Amino acid sequence: MDPSALLDLAVRLGREAREAILAVRRAGFVVERKGDASPVTAADRLAEGIITEGLRVTGLPVIAEEAAEAGALPEAGSRFWLVDPLDGTKEFAAGLDEWCACIALVEGGRATLGVLAGPGRLYAGIVGEGAWAEDGDGPRRAIRSRVPPAEGLTVLASRSHHSETRHAEFVAAHRVARVVPMGSALKYGVLAEGGADVVPRLGGRTMEWDTAAGQAVLEAAGGVMLDAAGGALRYGKPGFQNRGYIAWGQPPA
């Protein structure tokens, strides 16, 4: 399958997963706790099943959050899928619409294709070919990240995970117009469409499935996601873990 066909498949599966998540919300659900005390629901598991089963047609390994955390990690190789079936479970459980299904293709350590399917909106892109968004049942629209405005940066801050000290240091070191809290990888879609300028995640651990789809969409729209050393955030690292990064719509000159 060529990149366009792979993206079409990921978009379809993202939509199906989103509808399943919404169905669980309508029916009601129980919030459980995993070994690391993070929340999980029936929606996470149902969406993961839909996505991973649908991706099998590609013949590529699938690294998906719930299966990986249960010890089911296939050999990734140089080309594989990364899936977070419900990023923003805390927000979902709290009744907020800041959650999304994340599907990304990784090739040679880079996220090259991604889909973020959230309630009422979907972002998709192929690095080097462009990104687009759709709102509800509306038409697709091409998106592009923006140059930071003269009045200062709009910073999207993790609603529940940022380090107060390091976040404050970042804000103090830059010309910032406002800081907006937002949950889940939908933040990277907002950056990609020019609705904000930067997402700093400077401390703590994240997993690769938390960032890969967002990075692909963002970079397809002209942005960049950098690791703690200032290089491109890469994938297939030991344990599939990230250690700090900054996502920029357009880095300041």
Order of helices and strands: HEEHEHEHEEEEEEHEHEHEE
* Strand ordering within the main sheet: 3-4-5-6-7-8-9
Mean of all residue-level pLDDT scores:
91
CATH superfamily of the largest domain: Fructose-1,6-Bisphosphatase, subunit A, domain 1
CATH architecture of the largest domain: 2-Layer Sandwich
* Proportion of residues in β-strands: 25-35%
For the report, how would you describe the main beta sheet?
Answer: 7 strands, mixed
Fraction of residues in helix: 25-40%
Q: What can you see in these coordinates?
A:
By secondary structure, the chain is α+β, with helices and mostly antiparallel strands. The protein folds into two domains: 3-143, 2-Layer Sandwich (Fructose-1,6-Bisphosphatase, Chain A, domain 1); 153-248, D-Maltodextrin-Binding Protein, domain 2. Helices cover 31% and strands 33% of the residues. It is built from seven helices and 14 strands. The protein has helices at residues 3-27, 42-55, 65-69, 89-93, 164-173, 186-192, 208-220; strands at 32-33, 39-40, 62-64, 79-87, 100-107, 110-118, 121-126, 130-135, 141-143, 153-158, 176-182, 198-207, 224-227, 241-248. The chain has a seven-stranded mixed β-sheet with strand order 3-4-5-6-7-8-9, with helices on both faces. Strands 12-14-13 form a three-stranded antiparallel β-sheet. Helix 1 (3-27) packs antiparallel against helix 2 (42-55) and helix 6 (186-192) packs parallel to helix 7. The protein is globular, with a radius of gyration of 17 Å. The model has no long low-confidence stretch (mean pLDDT 91).
